[in-house]
Amino acid sequence: MNVIAILNHMGVYFKEEPIRELHRALERLNFQIVYPNDRDDLLKLIENNARLCGVIFDWDKYNLELCEEISKMNENLPLYAFANTYSTLDVSLNDLRLQISFFEYAL
């Protein structure tokens, strides 16, 4: 079974409800969903779980720094960031090589 980690410390309904829907959809596709407690817990999970096939997180909270840390550990691990339509994405061309996809939500 493949594992997806979700850093879901968003705290507001309009961010958490899409995560709940995504969780249910991924379970129907036979993914196991885990919720690391924090950034350090996620990094330990990446280091110790070969079945991890993706990470989902809130861009406004965790941003590019987390992506870079994960990429150093596993440059092929897909990352999925939830970002507000109006979020400023301060990334360089070099950063675009990261394995990251964005999902936008509107307030």
Automatic annotation (TrEMBL):
Residues 14-106 form the Orn/Lys/Arg decarboxylase N-terminal domain. GO terms for molecular function: carboxy-lyase activity. Pfam families: OKR_DC_1_N. This is Lysine decarboxylase. It comes from Escherichia coli.
